[in-house]
Amino acid sequence: YLADDTQNISINYATDSAGNVQATVTNPLGHQAVQTYDGTYGTGGGYNSQLSSVSNNAVADCGATVNSRQYDNNGNLSQTVDNNGNVHTYTYAANGQLQTETEASGTTQARTTDYVWDPNAQLNRLTSATVEGWSKTAYTYNAQNRLASVSVTNLSANGTANQTLTTQYNYTLYANGMVQTMSVTHPSPNNSDTDVTTYDTLGNVSSFADGLGHTTTYSSYNGLGEPQHVVGPNGDATDFVYDARGRISTKTTHPNGTAATWTYTYDGFGLLYTLTTPDNEVTTWNRNAEMMVQTITHNDKDGTSTETFGYDPNGDVTSHIVTRGSDVGLKESATYDALGRLYQKTGNNGQTLTYAYDGNGNVLSTTNAVGHVINYQYDHLDRLTQTVESGGASPSIPTAAPTLSAPANSSNGSYAVSWTAVSGATSYILQEQANGGAWTTIQNSSATSVSLSGKSPATFGYRAQACTSSGCGPWSNVGSVIVTQVTGSIDGVSIDGSGNATVTGWACSTGIAQSISVDLYLGGPAGTGTDIGRYTANQTSEPAVASACDVSSGSYRYSIPLSVATRSQYAGQAIYLYGISPIGAANLALANAGSFQVPVNEPAGAPTLNVPTSANVSYYTVSWSAVSGATSYTLQEQVNGGAWATVQNSAATSWAATGKSNNTYGYRVQACNSSGCGAWSVTATVTVAIPPIPASAPALSVPSVSYTGGYTISWGGVSAATSYTLQEQVNGGAWSTVQASASASWSTASRGAGTYGYRVQACNVSGCGPWSGTGTVTVTAPTAAPGLSAPATNATGSYTVSWGGVTGASAYLLQQQVNGGGWTTLQNSAAASLAVSGETNGSYGYRVQACDAVGCGPFSGTATTVVTIPVPLAINGQSYTESYAISKASGSASIGFEIVSGTTWDVWGSKPNATHAVLISGAVPATAVTVQYVWTLIGPPAGDSASTGTLVNPAASPVAITSNPSSNYVTSLYTASSNGNGEQYQLTVTFFNAAGANVSSSTCTLTAKVVGTN
């Protein structure tokens, strides 16, 4: 069911006595149909759940009906019996393809159709369908399984026996297999009738040409596959614009080269809502919540027509009314049987047409309003075989016209129109026309009168005619009714050159060609305002007024004077005028009543003027006294006794004169209000004598440079100058005023870095003279970088960084970076050096810049100090001895230092019974690249004698560690009878990195000696 609970269909399920499901379907009109499904739970039917019968209850125009179905063992529909008992049978192949069907089986009208299918069952395509004794239709296909031809052969005795007519289909393809063109050749002489459809690469139709060569082209497809430009066979172009949902929003044609556009809008259901034609006629479809059209309105240049639709719960249209304003052009209604079929239709004049149906829905009879019946008979194929008409002779058309009566006029738009009855008439049509316009039907019924109301002023004509169901007789006489009421307008209040005030306008009673009276009220409408008097609107009026009065001509204007006394007593009060109805209807207020006021009298006196007698400038003020009753003042000026010209017209009591040159100016003023102006004041004059503008420029003095941002600008005096304007520009930019005074100098203490230009001009009340030349001051930070000095290397971590002075500098900013990292400030002072201490191993970069109050100059280049503090080995400060006690004939001892494998150092000793014994060892410093050994002789050990011996030292100067240098001292050979002999050395081992810096320095004492044992 729908949102408003209409079109509600209910289904109830139950089982019959055999266990089969039965569904009882009740439609929105209350009709019930029972659907039986055999075999659902019971034993009936070859296959479960298949519909076997439908029983329909009787309705008003048809009795109860039953139709049934049967199925073969494969579940295919094998037989149907319709509501009239007609049998339709079907047979199938094993694969389920339909082979034959017989309509009206078992009757003389039986009609059998045979179907032949492609032997390739996978293609599942029909090759022929033969209606026995009537026709055969054969189908062929091309290699792409597209239809190639359709041939129809006449198997009946009608026409040309066995004649075959063939329609051929031919295709051309794109490389990807899509159709490029499709040609359809229809049966025709010499196959001359061929339609050709051309497609683009996306499958859109690009053109269609019929057998006569009439071609229509389609182009500019959008993403939804819709053409936006269509050109017809005659070159007529149509352009389409679609919305985002693919619906047409505009259609534009181009008749005679001029665009004509139809505009479409859609409602929330996506259905057409409005259609606007090129001449701005608008049709609107209004739908209810169930998407059914309720009204269709059509607005054109002549007004609005409306179609209104009513519906029953089944969604069937039950009423259709067409109106235009208050006129009803069509009013018809319909009722339906319980199956939703049209049962009775009632026409515009109340005439009816009633329908009856058989079980299959064929119309059995129609009965019109006068009892005329048409009966219809059908064969077993539901084909109409006979119609029989009976009864309902048509009545005569009335020959006489009614006599119509209507009042001559109406003051309120409500009145009755009546007419006499005509013998034999069953209804009367009453028509109306307004102001001689078109006739429209306003009533169609059996009544002989009508009451009308709400009629606007106009001349209405009425006519009636008598009718029967056979037609209508002649029209009656025309009765005219003038609907009249007072109308008119107050055009305004005018004041002539002499100050006389007059109220003007027009008034009449519509449709009546005679002048009327008007009543004047001041201060309020009739009943509250003061009644001043009655006047006649009988002065000549223009055609537009006659048209508004609904007459062809006449005199309807009025002019009512307002005296000085009236204006004095009622000044500012509202004006009301009423038209007096000549037929005793309402005396209505004229348009604009209350919109205009009684004008005040003109001001009586002149203002007193006040101006300076002289001025040495181009400006001054003119003022004057106020005058009672004045709302504005007009001030006029004359130059050197010339013509007067208005310079101000306002409520102000003063005026500022500007831009005046050396002349004598006269002034006069008068007081005014809405009614006019009073007398002029006495003339007052002012003489303007302005001194000359200074002719020369001041001599400007500026410093060329400033390192502090503070400086003074000065200039020389100029004759006739009373002030000086000094302007400044920054870095060549726009000029701006920094001082305008009588002073001849200007100082600043806060200018930042930049180039400052200055110019000055001399001024007085008349203006300013020429600018001086531009003087430029450069405010700058130091421009040079200091010369920086720092030691390249250092082995202690303490050293001094220094730099040279820079002109203009008041301080120096020193920064440091460690091992190439970020810069940090160490010092910002006037000093020219910094003592650095406590630094550890690393690379220290330094840079310095000179600064002043304005800023800082460029940094110097970077000076780098590499700090490498040597780390001694474990031997540092130690003593090592190799001693040999000679027990044989002779022997010696040695001691030395060596590098092993480029990574290890050791001190070793050697003697006959212990060759190359390591006394101590350790790792070579990580950054070491070269090494140097320095042997310094101390002398023999205490109590021993010196031994000449041999000293070997391959690293007396730095050598690569990777050369594994080994250095040693060896004593001379001694016998067992020798005393103690040997030498003592001081060994210094120094390692250097790749830059040549000392990374480790160690000193130890090495002793080698021998002692005889005998």
How is the secondary structure organized here?
Layout: E1 10-15, E2 21-26, E3 32-38, E4 50-56, E5 65-71, E6 77-81, E7 87-92, E8 98-103, E9 111-117, E10 126-131, E11 135-141, E12 147-154, E13 164-173, E14 179-185, E15 194-199, E16 205-209, E17 215-219, E18 229-231, E19 237-242, E20 248-253, E21 260-266, E22 272-276, E23 282-287, E24 293-300, E25 303-311, E26 317-324, E27 327-336, E28 342-346, E29 352-357, E30 363-368, E31 373-378, E32 384-390, E33 404-405, E34 409-410, E35 415-419, E36 427-434, E37 440-445, E38 449-452, E39 458-468, E40 471-475, E41 479-483, E42 486-495, E43 501-509, E44 516-522, E45 530-537, H1 543-548, E46 557-562, H2 564-570, E47 575-579, E48 609-610, E49 614-615, E50 620-624, E51 632-639, E52 645-650, E53 654-657, E54 664-673, E55 676-680, E56 684-688, E57 700-701, E58 705-706, E59 711-715, E60 723-730, E61 736-741, E62 745-748, E63 754-764, E64 767-768, E65 775-779, E66 788-789, E67 793-794, E68 799-803, E69 811-818, E70 824-829, E71 833-836, E72 842-851, E73 856-859, E74 863-867, E75 879-886, E76 890-891, E77 894-900, E78 904-911, ...
Parallel strand pairs: 34-41, 49-56, 58-65, 67-74, 75-87, 81-86
Antiparallel strand pairs: 1-2, 2-3, 3-4, 4-5, 5-6, 6-7, 7-8, 8-9, 9-10, 10-11, 11-12, 12-13, 13-14, 14-15, 15-16, 16-17, 17-18, 18-19, 19-20, 20-21, 21-22, 22-23, 23-24, 24-25, 25-26, 26-27, 27-28, 28-29, 29-30, 30-31, 31-32, 33-35, 35-38, 36-37, 36-39, 39-40, 39-41, 42-43, 43-46, 44-45, ...
